[in-house]
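Possible regression after last week's pipeline update?

I re-ran a chain I had predicted before the update to compare outputs. Posting the input and the new output here so someone can diff against the archived version. Not blocking, just want to make sure nothing changed silently.
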Amino acid sequence: MPGLNRIGVVCQEEFDAESAKNLSKDGGRRGGVLEVFGAVLTLLSAAFFCTFPLSAWMCAKVVQEYERAVIFRLGRVVKGRAKGPGLFWIIPWLDVIQTVDLRTVSFNILPQEVLTADGVPLKVDAVVFYRVVDPSLWVTRVKNGYQATQTLAQTTLRAAVGAHTLTDLLAQRRGVTERMEEALLAVSRLWGVLVERVELKDLTLPVGLQRCMASEAEAGRRARAKMIAAEGEVKASRALKEAASGLSPVALQLRYLQSLSSVQSSASIVVFSLPTELLDMFFSHQQISAGR
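New output (post-update):
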């Protein structure tokens, strides 16, 4: 039985190969016949216009500066680049024209609910700018290119945002958009499209997460404020110590009296001065008692 199966597979492969050869021969013959038939029709059309020159106005077509015309003659694209801008000639009963706009087109990507790499739910929307650079590919490679490009942009946006954390999205938005442009260009260039720019418009966070981030930012600012105040106190004490070390006892006493005079007096504050000698005796007595 295994031998019969192998023989059946070999026979099937030979039959497929022979069928492919026959189809290629038939296709080549049909293609050659159609090419000859098309050439004959083209010559008859040229002879008709030579015989009736007034009918040539039917062959004149005009496209704008920002447009190009792709011509299909008997179902096949006419060789060469797309026609335009300006005046060009066609064969009315043999040619079909499709006009392509070369101007930059922009569209908004609807808000997409995406889960980031660190598990944060987001709503992201963006705007994409693109233009057609090869009208022939735009007409022959894709059907409804605007919808195809929009769908591709939506899926690319979801994939790009889902591959990054929330911190990366907030700090490196330009890097994310550049990766989106590269991903879109890799696919859309096969359609004759050039993606010029992608911009993230808005990142919408849940309300609870916004409150948590605001609380975290506020706590961080308070901590930094306290550290700055503490550093200022340390610098002020060092400066005061350096200034006091250079004063004589008499100057230090005068500075002490001047500081007392600058204190505002009120009913709840009573200020009185003590001799520095008395304070020195009090401090020395405390040091002696501590040593014992």
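Follow-up from reviewer: compared with the archived run. DSSP finds eight helices and eight strands in the chain. Marking as no regression found.
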